[in-house]
Design brief:
Largest interface: A-B, 31 and 19 residues
CATH architecture of chain B: Roll
Number of helices of chain B: 3
CATH topology of chain A: Aldehyde Oxidoreductase, domain 3
Mean pLDDT of chain B: 97
CATH class of chain B: Alpha Beta
Oligomer: heterodimer
Strand content of chain B: 25-35%
Order of helices and strands of chain B: EHEHHEEE
Order of helices and strands of chain A: HHEEHEEEHEEEHEEH
Helix content of chain A: 25-40%
Number of strands of chain B: 5
Largest sheet of chain B: 5 strands, mixed
Radius of gyration of chain A: 17 Å
Low-confidence stretches of chain A: 5-40
Number of domains of chain B: 1
Structural class of chain A: alpha+beta
Shape of chain B: globular
Strand order of the largest sheet of chain B: 2-1-5-3-4
Distance between the termini of chain B: 34 Å
CATH superfamily of chain B: Beta-grasp domain
Largest sheet of chain A: 5 strands, mixed
CATH architecture of chain A: Alpha-Beta Complex
Number of helices of chain A: 6
Mean pLDDT of chain A: 84
Strand content of chain A: 25-35%
Helix content of chain B: 25-40%
CATH topology of chain B: Ubiquitin-like (UB roll)
Structural class of chain B: alpha+beta
Radius of gyration of chain B: 12 Å
Strand order of the largest sheet of chain A: 1-2-6-8-3
């Protein structure tokens, strides 16, 4: 049968791109790449007015993301960003890395729904969500949420709200590599409790 | 026909990422689960897990939800991203 989910086959070790040199040209190149809409071979990028969702194997640059949130956006005085990284330990065990799987199609829809809910609850400007998939090593960036607003309260609250619901609703799954082998992580009740507080 | 897809730990435990099932005799998600569970002891154990989540055409649903021919039904464990 034809594989309708080529992305899921691609979950086998993606060659991890070396962090590119942060030269001016390099920055400009990745800046331009980030502005490109559409689907690439390893994930999806969905961009609509003031809102962008990107699921990707490649790394991202915090400073480029902040620059995009600021660009031609003189009306928003606040930018709140969150970055999640791979920890070196979990549940008392040393972790050497993670593999992230997602549900192409559904994950993007769920993230858009969470962002839309945030937009109805707070007065926010731009929103960017990036989530990486595939194989990640210790210290690598996994997730980014950036929100702008006129004043800080809305951006702080909306950022935390988006992150809390991403954790408990968006179809992503982590598989951890430890000395004992590989294992899928269990969902944490504390994450549900936190999301329910909103 | 119903397209069924599996993710993460469930996909690995079933050793199956997708399959198609005839929509005959299947009205709800619960019916589909029962049919899948009948494949083997291993499938029975996995589909008896009450924490298993279900989605139809990318929308989360519960066991009573009606399935139509042509739907994509997904089964997966609780999510752990972020």
């Amino acid at each position: 049968m034809k594989n309708r989910y080529p992305e899921r086959e691609a979950r086998k070790p993606s060659v991890h791109p070396e962090r590119e040199e942060r030269t001016v040209e390099g920055r400009q190149a990745s800046f331009d790449k980030l502005r490109t809409n559409g689907k690439d071979e390893n994930g999806t990028k969905i961009k609509i007015m003031n809102q962008e969702i990107s699921i990707q194997t490649s790394d991202f640059s915090l400073s480029d993301e902040v620059a995009l949130l600021e660009q031609d956006n003189a009306s928003d005085g606040a930018i709140v960003t969150f970055t999640g990284r791979v920890r070196n330990h979990n549940n008392g065990m040393d972790v050497s890395g993670l593999t992230l799987e997602y549900y192409p199609g559904m994950t993007e829809k769920l993230l858009a729904k969470i962002i839309n809910t945030a937009k109805t609850r707070w007065n926010i400007g731009r929103v960017k969500v990036i989530h990486r998939i595939g194989e990640l090593s210790i210290g690598e960036q996994i997730v980014f949420v950036g929100v702008t607003s006129k004043h800080r309260h809305d951006a702080f609250a909306a950022n935390e709200f988006i992150m809390d619901f991403l954790k408990v609703q968006a179809p992503f799954w982590k598989k951890e590599r430890t000395e004992q082998g590989e294992s899928w992580l269990d969902a944490k009740a504390t994450d549900d409790t936190k999301a329910q507080k909103w | 026909m119903i397209n069924v897809v599996f993710f993460a730990a469930l996909r690995e435990q079933l050793d199956c990422s997708e399959l198609t099932v005839s929509s005959e005799n299947i009205t709800t998600v619960a019916d589909l689960k029962r049919q899948l569970a009948s494949k083997s002891e291993q499938w029975q154990t996995l589909f008896g897990n009450t924490s298993l989540l279900s989605a139809i055409n990318h929308e989360m649903v519960d066991d009573e939800q009606v399935i139509k021919s042509g739907d994509e039904v997904a089964f997966f464990p609780p999510v752990t991203g972020g």
